[in-house]
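Minutes, methods subgroup
Present: GH (chair), OT, SY

1. OT presented the first of two proteins processed in the latest run. Sequence and C-alpha cells recorded below as shown on screen.
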Amino acid sequence: AALGREGMGGGHAVPLAARLVYVVAVLAGLVTVAPKAWLALRRFRPDMNLLMTIAVCGAIVIGEWFEAATVAFLFAFSLALEAWSVGRARRAIAKLLDLAPPTARLVAPEGERIPLDGRVLAGRSTLNQAPITGESRPVEKQPGDDVFAGTINGAGALEVETTAAAEATMLAKILRLVEEAQARRSPSERWVDRFAAIYTPLVFVTALLVALLPPLLAGASWGDWGYRALV
C-alpha cells in the first residue's frame, strides 16, 4: 500500500482542504477497525486490524496523508466485501426459510406451497419441486407419493397426510446443512489462523527492528527508517 515518499502527498506540504478530505477518508475507513484494534492491543493479541491502524496512524504522523487515506480505504473496502459475501449467504438462508408457509388450508383451488413433508392420500396434481430438488419440470403426484415442504402445488387438489414435524422436513434438513456449512471453517481458514498467530507478531518485531536499529547503530535518519518500518 505504500506509494513511496516521492508519491502523492509523500512528505510534502499538504493543503488544508486536501488534509481535511484525507482525515474524513481515514475516519471512514477506521470507524469499525479501530475498536477491534484497541481490543487486540488490550489482549496482547496483535491482528490485522491493529497492524492497519498503526500503519495509518504512523503515516499521518510522518505527513503521508494520501497513503494513510489509501490504506484505510483499501482495508475498509476488503472488510465491506467480506461482510457482503457473508450477508449474501445469510440472505440465501432467509429465502429458504420463506419457502415453508406458516399455515396450510385443507382445500384450496389455487396453487399453494406444501407446508410439511407428507404422503398423498387422495387427489392428483402436479408439484413444482424446483425449490427443493432442482427439477425444472412439475412432477405429477398421486395417492401414495411423497411430497416435500416448500414445493408448490399446481392445478389439482391434494389430500396430504403429514409425515414429519416442521423441524424434521427435507427443507429443515437443507437449512441445517447450509447453516453448518457456513459455521464450519475450512482447513485453509484454520491454517491461515495458525499462520497469522506467528506472522503478525513477527511483522511487529521486524518493523520495530527496522525502525530502531539503523538509527541507533549507524546514525541513519529516524524519519526514513520509520517510514520503511511502516511499509
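2. SY then presented the second protein from the same run.
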Amino acid sequence: MSLFQKSVVNKYLKNLNQQTVEEAYKQFQQFYDDAERIENIRLLKEENYQEGFLREIFVDVLGYTINPNKNFNLTTEYKNETDSKKADGAILLDGKAIGVIELKSTSTPDLDSIRNQAFNYKNNQTNCKYLITSNFEKLRFYIDNATDWEEFNLFHLDYNNFCKLYLFLSKESIFNGITAKLKD
C-alpha cells in the first residue's frame, strides 16, 4: 500500500543533496552488501541485533544520535506512557516519542503479524506520528494509521529505493517536517 504520491516523491527526491545521499548509501552498503554478513543477520535473534540494527541504520546511515550520547534523538526500549510495555526503539523530539520502532528477527517473515503490537506502542505515545516495523530484512514505514505504508527490502535495496528510504526516514526529513509534507 503506497503511503505517498509518486509525483510528489519524485519532486522531493530531486531536492535531496546527492552527495549526502551517496555517502549514506555507501555506509548502508558496508552493512548490507556482504552475503555472509546477511546470512549471519538471518540467524540472529531479535535481542542479539536490535541495538546494532538501530545504530547501523538509524545512526550511521540516517543521521540520528542514539542514547546515551549527548542530545540523543533515538533510544532503545521506550516505555509506553500508559502502561509498562516497551517499543524496541523510539525517535524522540524534545524527549517525547514522535516515532516508534518495533523489531523482530528474520524468523518473523510477515510484518503484518506485528502490526497490531507496533500500533499499540504508537497509540500509547501522545505525540507519536510515525511507526517503523522491521524484521532486519524488510522495513515498513507508516504515518498515523495502519492502512498505508512503504516497505523496503534492506537485503536487496538498490540506490533508487535507498533514496526513497533516506527521503522518508532521515533525521533531516523527519525533524524538518519533510516526511509529513510528503504525506499531506
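Chair's summary of item 2: The radius of gyration is 15 Å.
Next meeting: continue with the remaining queue.
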